[in-house]
Amino acid sequence: MIGPARSLKAKDKNRLAVGRLTIDKDRHEATLGSYTIRLTPIESALLWRLASEPGRVFGREELLANVWGHGITVEHRTVDTHMSKVRRKLRERPDGPSLIETIWGMGYRLRISDP
Fold first, then answer.
1. Chain center to CA of 110
2. Is domain 6-110 classified as CATH 1.10.10.10?
3. Which residues pair with 36 in a beta bridge?
4. In whole angstroms, what is the distance from residue 89 CA to residue 102 CA?
5. Rounded CA gap, 65 and 74, in Å?
6. Where are the domains of the chain?
7. pTM, whole model, 2 decimals?
8. Looking at the chain, which terminus has fewer C-beta neighbours within 10 angstroms, N or C?
9. Packing angle between helix 41-52 and helix 76-90, nearest 10 degrees?
10. Beta strand 100-103 pairing with 12-18
11. How high is the pLDDT of residue 2?
12. DSSP class per residue in 54-83
């Protein structure tokens, strides 16, 4: 089940929580349950964008524009590479489900299941 994104505190615009996932934009960290995950600035920005609207599918073009900005030349496969890294970091178990889902031919979405 996908839950809505919420800021942890009204004044804290740089932290976002969705289900058991919390993202700290300033620290480039995510917390999944009690597990803290270090992220690169790009990984953090990608995860933040997905978590801002969980369940919504974001296409590569939109993610490129939102994360890298307009006027920057970046290959589409760059998004795939970064998503793969974020996916690995967020996995609680090697055989566990991924929170980031690939929607073939469309893009990516954040899927949060309540325990």
1. 6
2. yes
3. 31
4. 16
5. 10
6. 6-110
7. 0.83
8. C
9. 80
10. unpaired
11. 47
12. TT--B-HHHHIIIII-TT----HHHHHHHH
